[in-house]
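Example record for the data management plan.
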Amino acid sequence: MGEYNNAKLWQIGCFSLNNAATNLYMAMMLYVSYYANSIAGMGVVLVSFLLTGMNIFDGITDPVAGYLLDCSNGRFGKFRPFMAAGNFLMAVSSFLLFFTTHLVPSFIKIGYFIFIYAVFIIGYTCQTVVGKSGQSALTDNPSQRPVSTYFDSLFIMASYGGIALFVSACLIPRLGGFHSKELFQILAVTVIFLSGVCTALAIAGIWEKDKAFGKKEEKEKTGQKIKIRDYKEVVLHNRPIQALILSACMNRFAATVYGHTAVGVMLFGIMMEDYSIAGLIGVITAVPTLFVVTGGIWVAQKFGQKKSFVLCTWAAIVLQTAMLVFLLRGDINRIHFGLKGWNGVTWGFFWLFVLLNGCKSITNNMVVPMIADCTDYEVCRSGKYVPGLMGALFSFVDKLFAALGTAFVGIALAAAGFGQRLPQVSDEITDTIRYTTLFLYCVIPAAGWFCSVFAMRYYHLDRKRMQQVQIEKSSRK
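Corresponding structural encoding:
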């Protein structure tokens, strides 16, 4: 173990809060389409394509941020300035977005929305590029890296589940639905505060490693100045990062589709006739889901991250198929999580959701330490230490597929008759809504995961290969 750059458990846990900080904003931005449509008065299809375009812009900013991160080495380290600056930009732009967009004149409203959202994206890119690249500096121990998946899963579930519960169980009953601008404003202020706290703790988690890396280890690891042409060589010849990106982006497309707010409204609010389940389900399944995640991490530590990723993806395909069959039942409106006792339908949905959500958490979050593996492999392959490039390259394609997922949902909703307004929790169930929901929530994710498993056939960084990589990397120092 002595040859590894080990991290303390609290450092791994605190640094994972960087992902929590950005995912709190992403959980909030799941509702931006409802704000733009219900409060700012923009059409559903227009909003979908605006968000798609902004997500593509989001991806374009990643290579720039990655290059700047690889070239940076200031007195405050390589990663911390990007974290602080990114969170500040997201805070300011989110406040302006939800407090002022509906107030500006109609003829400049779209341009104003695009500008403010672009500032938000720049901030988001600055902070997320650290989340995708900082693992390589935090630890290179193959047994420690999967541990970050546990913390990422915990904090991301808390971020999305907490925001969903806050909106569905607190804000909507109090303020009367998505037609209230106060709902979005309270949500924005809450997220700004919580994300700021998470960012401060994440900075503390990587402080020691970033400080040392910025002085001595930079010379030891690189010994050269990174040039733009080096990026092309890395992209063309690093097969593991190519395979990982393709696999993970299939997961991202699936996650964007099944996680879309409108899909949740149709599933929980219309089909199950109780939108509060959308928030409650994440809270009451959190602990058992973590047991599933723990099992996946154990597999990763014992057999390698690739093995765990592939097994969990196959399990997700099987479970999502079972979920499709379950949701075709005619009595899913009997699902409730009250204190008076659960019926058989509730228990069936509960356990399916736990197992499925645990597998999804592993496949969605394990890619972060796997990116660090690709970074170390590149050090052995070419001698280049480019964590920013690895994170930026991954984020670029990841966000492109997220943008495609958003557009896909918008087109599907328009085809289902929701071209001018989004589905509301008060809508009556129809066959069109039912089958559109099942298509988006079950069929598309399973298809995406199948493609993901196929792509992993070309990812050869299993546990044995990574042990060799760390030995080779240590010999280069």
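Summary line stored alongside the record: Confidence is low (pLDDT under 50) at residues 212-224.
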